[in-house]
Amino acid sequence: PFREEVQQKLTELSDTTDTLELWVKVQMLWTSLESVFMGGDIAKQMPLEAKKFAKIDKDWIKIMAKAAEARNVVLCCSNELLRNTLPVLYAELEKCQKSLEGYLEQKRNRFPRFYFVSNPVLLLILSQGSDPLQMQPYYEKVFDSISKVKHDRTDKTLITAMHSIAGVDEEMIPFSNTVKAVGNIEEWLGAIEKEMQLTLKSLCEKCALQCLSMPLRDFIDSNCGQFALLGIQFSWTESCQDALDKCRTSKSIMMETNKKQLGVLQELSSWCLQDLKTKMNRTKIETLVTIQVHQRDVFFDLTKTFKERKALDANDFEWLKQARFYWRPNAADKHGPAACIISVCDVDFKYSFEYLGCKERLVITPLTD
C-alpha cells in the first residue's frame, strides 16, 4: 500500500543526491577561483574572465543565502531554480578554469621554471607579483639554491644580491648589476635568472685565474663553495693535462704530480680538524675533500698505467673518459666571450652558471662516476 510513497521518496532522495554532488563540484571550483578573480594581479590581467566570475559570484551568493534560509536539504534541493542554475554555474566556472589554465601556460612559456611549480603555488606567486617582497618565500621553488634575495633599503624594486640559507648559516652573492623588479613577475624573475648567470660567470673567470696563482687556503677562503670546488677542479685538470703532455720527455713528472695531488688532499683534510667557525664552511671543506679524493684516485690510476705501459699522453682514453674542467678565454657561451667547458671523452659541455649554494656531495664511486 505504501510502495508508491516509498518510490517517490527514493526518487526525491536520489535527485537530492545528484543535486548535492553537483553543488559540491560548483563549490570546489568557486572556492579555487574566488581568490584569483576577486581582486589581485591576475584579475587585472584577465578583465573579461574577472567580470564573468563576478556575475557567477553574485548568483552563487544568492543560492547560498536561500539555502541558509531553507534549513532543509531535501526542500532546498527540490527547488527548480536551484536545479536549473547549478549546471549553468558549473559550465561557466569550467570556462573560467580553462581560461585560467591558458593564462598559466602563457606565463610558463615566458618563464619555463614555472613548469616545476604546482598550479596553486603559481597562482599565489602571480597574484602577488606587483609586490616583489611577497616573492621571498617562493624563490626556492624556481631556483636551485636561492633562498631569498636582498632588496635595496630605499627602493624595494631594486634587488642587489642572492642568499642561500642552510640552518643558521647563509651565503650571500652580490649581483654584478642591480635587478629592477618592475612589470610582470615572469619578466623580472627572468632578469634575476640572467643576472645570476652573468654574476656567476664573472666569479668563475676570477676563480679560474686565482686557483693557479693563489695559495690554496687563501683561494678557498676568498671564494664561495661553488667556485672553491670548481677552482680545485680547474687546477687538477691543468696539473694532470700538463703532466700527461710532458710525461714522454720527463719521466718523473707523473710521480711529482701524483705527490702534489696527495699533498692537496692532505692539506684539505687537515683543515677538517680545525675550528671552521660555521657549519656551512665545514660543509664546503668536506665537499672539497670528497671531490679531491676522487681526483687523487684518478691520477693515481693514470700514474700506475704510465708505469706499466711506459707510454701515455693527453689523448689516451683513460684520461679522456674523465670529467675535465677548463676555462677557455677564446670560446664563447650565450653570455658572451669566454666559457667554462666541461669535457668528457670527445664531448664538450658548457657550464650553465646556475647558483648551487654550498651543499654536500656524494662520494664518487665507479658506479656514480
Q: Give the end-to-end Cα distance, rounded to a whole number of Å.
A: 83 Å
Based on CA atoms alone, the radius of gyration comes out at: 31 Å
Order of adjacent strands in the largest pleated sheet: 1-2-3
Q: What amount of the residues lies in strands?
A: 5-15%
| Largest beta-sheet details | 3 strands, antiparallel
State the total count of DSSP E strands. Answer: 6
- Overall structural class, as computed from helix and strand content, comes to alpha+beta
Give the uncertain stretches in residue-range form: none
- Helix/strand order: HHHHHHHEEEHHHHHHEEE
How confident overall, as mean pLDDT?
A: 91
> What is the count of DSSP helices, taking H or I runs of 4+ residues?
13
Oligomerization: single chain
Describe the structure.
The protein is α+β, with helices and mostly antiparallel strands and 369 residues long. Helices cover 61% and strands 13% of the residues. The protein has helices at residues 3-37, 41-45, 47-70, 73-77, 80-110, 119-127, 139-142, 185-213, 216-222, 225-246, 253-271, 279-309, 317-320; strands at residues 148-151, 158-166, 169-180, 324-333, 336-344, 347-350. Strands 1-2-3 form a 3-stranded antiparallel beta sheet, with helices on one face. A 3-stranded antiparallel beta sheet has the order 4-5-6. The longest helix is centred in the N-terminal third of the chain and has 35 residues, at 3-37. It is elongated and about 110 Å long. It starts with a helix and ends in a 19-residue tail after the last strand.
